[in-house]
Amino acid sequence: MNQTTTGQAPLPAPVNWLGYLALTLLLALPIAVLSVRSGAWQQGLLLYAISCAGAAILLLLGVLLMLLPRFSACRKAIAGRVLLSLPGALLLLSALNAGGHPRIHDISTDLQDPPIFSAAQQQRGAGSNSLDTDPETLALQAAGYPGLKTLLLARDFDETFDQAVQVATDMGWDIYLQDRNAGTIEAVDTTALMNFKDDIVVRLRTNADGTVVDLRSVSRVGLGDLGANAKRIGAFFQRLQAK
What we know:
By secondary structure, the chain is an alpha+beta fold. Helix content is about 50%, strand content about 15%. The protein has eight helices and six strands. Strands 1, 2, 3, 4, 5 and 6 form a six-stranded antiparallel beta sheet that branches. The termini are far apart.
């Protein structure tokens, strides 16, 4: 990155270092993702956060350098280096936009009687989050997702159960329990980028009006889910209603 702007004078050191740092932070992003996917999710997320924040800082620094008269002859070179920090800065912006969600990882459509997992504990491993319901989490969910409610369908139980299994399959969930007698389906959904695994239980019960459907989605690791579990439940209900 020591190219010259005129073929004679070398680029100023700040311009070159801007490029070196931007390239380093760009390469750190896939390393962070691989770290998370390999199981070192805390270290990986820390590296990911540092890379994105650092990229945003470099982007602002690059813009500042281009505005300074001293670096007017290097603006094209600076712009090329600044582009290397753009992916990380955009990822940071995306994360900040998702930061309005409550810092919880356990979401249920029934806060009074949340669906209970029966097979998930054997799937999750010793280091996973607890599946016990927490009153504080329920209160945070009630405030953060007031529109997330039980779904009532004017359909036969067996029909709805089969449709729920089909929707879960179509959404790419790995179903590890189907208990028609108990009216429960348990599955795991794996995120595409970070390979995070979230467990889901679908509970179906009958009443005089048809079939009552509740979902609970719980992340295996992490304190917050950036709204992923609630979004998953909403997508499932939307597809099930369309059946």
